[in-house]
């Protein structure tokens, strides 16, 4: 049995091992959150002077700002477009690549490549693909007699075009996570199901889906959080003077504009608090709902 000194040494070693992570979380995450909350009660001073305390004025302004609510809807709509399609495609691809498919390691690498590419570079490539006059997509559509489509500046379709980039960029990462979960399922379950005469369809819904549900839940939660924070692809695709700006601007993009373009960091912080509240609300709902469909072994 370990003595008190040994227990104390083990505790100190444990604290030493986790200390870098704890310090990093405090400095990079926890402290900035409280600073942002504090800043939301202030108005940035003119010419770089000290901030002015204005109480709840920024929150009152937030509640009556139509652009904020439009950006909120744009963010939610983008998430609704990206997350379900990404998860379904990732699940389908993971199941296919978990079989005895020739060259599956090459396919996994190709599908994962967009995740490691720089977002700015990816967006620039897609801007050329979406170009109205010289883009490859419109060139292909022209072969079928379909006129050029203004993918970037048409308010009706711009967000859908941006969502397509989001799906293409993240499906490979989600696929790898789900694939790792699939490979943890013992083959004994499938062998027993085959002996009992279960079809592949029944095997998927009665074995694969329940046993991979914890991984699927993690993918859904992280995908929603990531989609709610979308910024770079919209920033690179849509200029503030674009006709589609109002229909595509996200909450993070709005925060960037108010904080750095308009030098109103107090109001920008208030926008971020709104986004943080939405993400927390969605995460709490998912944590409660997951008890109905996630099966832990």
UniProtKB/TrEMBL annotation:
Keyword Cell membrane: yes
Classification of source organism: Bacteria, Bacillati, Bacillota, Bacilli, Lactobacillales
Family under the similarity heading: Belongs to the binding-protein-dependent transport system permease family.
Family matches, as InterPro entries: ABC_transporter_permease, MetI-like, MetI-like_sf
Topology in the lipid bilayer: Multi-pass membrane protein
TM helices/strands, residue ranges: 12-34, 78-97, 109-129, 157-182, 203-225, 267-289
GO cellular component: plasma membrane
Name the UniProt record assigns to this protein: Sugar ABC transporter permease
UniProt subcellular location: Cell membrane
ABC transmembrane type-1 domain ranges (all copies): 72-286
GO biological processes: transmembrane transport
UniProtKB keywords: Cell membrane, Membrane, Transmembrane, Transmembrane helix, Transport
PANTHER family xref list: ABC TRANSPORTER PERMEASE PROTEIN (PTHR30193), DIACETYLCHITOBIOSE UPTAKE SYSTEM PERMEASE PROTEIN NGCF (PTHR30193:SF41)
Chief localization: membrane
């Amino acid at each position: 049995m370990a003595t008190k000194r040994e227990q104390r040494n083990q505790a100190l070693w444990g604290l030493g091992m986790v200390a870098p992570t704890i310090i990093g979380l405090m400095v990079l995450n926890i402290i900035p959150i409280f600073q942002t909350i504090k800043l939301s009660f202030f108005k940035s001073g003119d010419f770089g002077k000290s901030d002015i305390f204005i109480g709840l004025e920024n929150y009152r302004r937030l509640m009556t700002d139509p652009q904020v609510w439009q950006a909120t809807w744009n963010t939610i709509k983008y998430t609704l477009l990206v997350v379900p399609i990404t998860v379904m495609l990732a699940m389908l691809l993971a199941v296919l690549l978990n079989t005895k498919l020739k060259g599956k390691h090459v396919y996994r690498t190709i599908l994962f490549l967009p995740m490691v590419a720089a977002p700015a570079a990816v967006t620039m490539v897609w801007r050329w693909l979406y170009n109205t006059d010289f883009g490859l997509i419109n060139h292909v559509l022209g072969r079928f007699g379909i006129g050029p489509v203004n993918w970037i500046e048409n308010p009706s379709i711009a967000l859908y075009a941006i969502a397509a980039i989001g799906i293409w960029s993240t499906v490979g990462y989600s696929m790898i996570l789900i694939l790792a979960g699939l490979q943890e399922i013992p083959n004994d379950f499938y062998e027993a199901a085959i002996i009992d005469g279960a079809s592949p369809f029944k095997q998927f819904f009665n074995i694969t889906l329940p046993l991979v549900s914890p991984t699927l839940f993690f993918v859904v939660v992280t995908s929603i959080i990531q989609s709610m924070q979308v910024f770079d692809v919209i920033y690179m695709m849509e200029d503030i003077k674009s006709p589609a700006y109002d229909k595509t601007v996200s909450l993070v993009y709005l925060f960037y504009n108010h904080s750095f373009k308009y030098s109103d960091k107090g109001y920008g912080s208030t926008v971020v608090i709104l986004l943080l509240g939405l993400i927390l609300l969605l995460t709490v709902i998912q944590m409660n709902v997951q008890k109905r469909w996630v099966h832990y072994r």
